[in-house]
Fold this sequence. Notes:
Shape: globular
Mean pLDDT: 84
Amino acid sequence: MQTSMEKWLDRFKALADEKRLELLAALQGDELSVGELAEVVQAAQPGVSRHLQALGKAGLVVARRQGTATFYRLAADEPLLGGSFGEELRQMGQGRHLSQRVERVLARRRARSESFFDGAEHWDALRGELFTEAAGYSSLLPLVPRGMTVADVGTGTGGMLPFLAQIASRIVAVDLSAEMLRRARAKARALGLREVTFLQGDLGALPVEKASVDAAFASLVLHHAPRPLQALREMARIVRPGGAVVVLDLVSHGLDWLREEQADLWLGFGKDESLDLASRAGLSELQHRVVSRIDVRDRLGCGTTPLELFVLSGRVSAAS
């Protein structure tokens, strides 16, 4: 077993390369793949992979597997990455234009997702196959009692509006895609829903005031978010103390083709992973359960893979 001093020596050895410092600077706020990091630090992928392995061995970065891709983020609560050294990394990120390149990578993620939804003719059919009525009502349980103001974050074509209208006196529906909002407005009119406000905006910077709603809801949205943690933090920001944040999304799976066919940025979230994201977003009283499952045929026609939907809920603390 390593002593405390040996662990510190491993950290300093891992940092004895300028490119590794750049990688840490690039990861200051976001989780990025090897290819994305290679673009940001302007280096070949094999070399970046070797540097990340060294940083991971020293406990400075954490890897997360997503289908055939691997994403990296800074290790949480790592003492070396805070304080004055962390500030030096942030300054490096600005001075060497690393943060600007990270923003370009994230903007490309957003543009890809927005482009898909603007032309998604069959989104309702796909969504309806997995999003059953039982899943819809299960997700509403944390929102009781009735008569609340609720945010439908990433409303899409308004699939959740009929469910939310059963408990909410007012709904704020937000989506990045203008086309999706057009369809959601049409659905609201067809259902006779009057107390719905539609806003165009990004998941990472919701156009909703702080602590202005009683609950925030996101259905099949988080796996399209360029920054899932930031999206959850934004949902928590707009909810009043004691209110609920509720997420319905896909359980972690290995269907890589969904990246291309459905513009999925993330291949679902495992239970521990989603609970960790919610906790880091400042939510408490967390609950997680699977509410729906379908079998998806693989692209070679050789079998099926289960695709599951979970509900994650948490409360915004009074201190938030």
